Amino acid sequence: MTAVPGEFGLIYKHFRPLAGPGGLDLGDDAAVFTPAPGRDLVVAADAMVAGVHFLPDDPPDLIARKLLRTNLSDLAAMGAAPLGYLLTVSVRRDTPEAWFAGFAAGLAADQAEYGLALLGGDTTSTPGPASLSLTILGSAVSGTALRRTGARPGDEVWVSGTIGDGALGLLAATGQLDDATGFLAGRYRLPQPRVALGLRLAGIATAAMDVSDGLVQDLGHLCRGGGVSAVIEAALVPLSPAAAAAVAAAPGLLERCLCGGDDYELLLAVPAARAAALRAAAAACGVAVTRIGRFAAGASEVTVHGPDGAALPLASGGWSHFA
Amino acid sequence: MTAVPGEFGLIYKHFRPLAGPGGLDLGDDAAVFTPAPGRDLVVAADAMVAGVHFLPDDPPDLIARKLLRTNLSDLAAMGAAPLGYLLTVSVRRDTPEAWFAGFAAGLAADQAEYGLALLGGDTTSTPGPASLSLTILGSAVSGTALRRTGARPGDEVWVSGTIGDGALGLLAATGQLDDATGFLAGRYRLPQPRVALGLRLAGIATAAMDVSDGLVQDLGHLCRGGGVSAVIEAALVPLSPAAAAAVAAAPGLLERCLCGGDDYELLLAVPAARAAALRAAAAACGVAVTRIGRFAAGASEVTVHGPDGAALPLASGGWSHFA
Questions:
Q1: Do A196 and A297 lie in a common domain?
Q2: How far apart are CA A288 and CA B128, in angstroms?
Q3: Which of A75, A187, A286, B55 is most buried, judged by most C-beta within 10 A?
Q4: What is the mean pLDDT of chain A?
Q5: How confident is the model at residue A24 (pLDDT cuts 50, 70, 90)?
Q6: Residues 165-224 of A with CB under 8 A from B
């Protein structure tokens, strides 16, 4: 009985080196750690399925990093600092060991970049597509975590980075859109969670969330959270040069940018008097921020004005798994 | 944009009523809660896939409860009290709403029984088998969490409840074994995590884990954790009346009981001088405990003595997802 069976061999070899002190070398039934006094715990979980959230042939290191980064984006939206994560991996029995090695290498790279460690998880087989989940734990000074509920009439609508790259990147990665530099596909495969910016938003943003299901739909969540409405100007929504070129060539892609999802940028409600503080915070961490509209009194309505000032008719609100 | 799309409608309707105060009504990017001072956090995650960990046609309330209970069993093995959980659910787009309703009803029942609440998670579609994951959070007085590493030569090997029902129950549930009363299939579908017993084991057990991958294999983990070996007597391993009858009719099933997994009982190392304290703790929460062998010096070897005193040759060590 001294032989370690295959499942445990894989875990020991590839995942144990990723474990932090609380992970107990992944050798126990659970992880144990002592929360720092004066801080709240912030916890989120996301699942990803091959063929739904990533392409089955995507490199395993990028799959791992996307999984970790979508969760880091949730922490960023709450203004929380990363602590650690638990991971479940369900893949086919014939998955080559190189896949696990690549997957673990991706996690190691992002652990170093974002400062967190593996705490535990589970590795199982599945006869179906690879199915992954990650639960992330972070912390924030007690009472300072950002919420979706604070937007007030008159607050401005701000976004970080550029919008639409992820949605266009999926088209590019599947051969439906020209992407000579690979920039758009790269933005789809490797989100850039705005953790550093999120940590500077306490006292600046009245509400925050990350844009994952499409700008317009997610802005609807902020409106419902605050009991307000919002008007944004399509011409103000920041597009990357690659996205702007794609939209110039095919104007119908503008709607894809506004509604398509996979952005992992921050969407913020900020009182006008704090705009300078927001700009300073963003500059301090090298992230662009752009004002795209304003919240107003009203019943959770989102209106998008087109370049001519008229409301854009949008056929699709955003991504939903169950239409 | 006021319509809530299908995914969010499902979450709001079925899962939001399960959310505790920290879950922020599942309306935010993450959950926030304040850990109690003087306690460590204990965190574990498990995944379950239809056709691997449960039968695709199992009732959804029992699938949900098994998922929650396998994680509660991990907390029990650490001696931790449940706090809350995060859940990811990936199911086919055509999953009927009644499935979600049943799944949520199962969670509600066990939340009431074990005293914990939903903190957050993710619901996605998959073209493959249903794929579920759950991360559980618990707490223990700082420094008291049970570990797998403390077994010492001379400590006794103890188990809670009965062994083998889960493995025989899978045979029964798939029509391969007679199970007139349904007891065995019930044990497979609805584990009984020993949370109350786990909370009483600080100062009694030197090492603990839950039996999920088979008694013999899991005992091997305790041996490796403590750098010891173990000898157990097959005749001492507690079988339920239903399992005992099945083994009497087909002696080959004894190995299935010892190596088959899905028991979710506690496996303990206990110094002989604390046996009375263990019995008292078990009696206080209405759980049977049985001494089945002893740890000894040596290199992580597990020996199982058969009824005739000779070592039993076991063909399979236990369950592994990747042989």
A1: yes
A2: 39
A3: A75
A4: 90
A5: low
A6: 209-210, 216-217, 220-221, 223
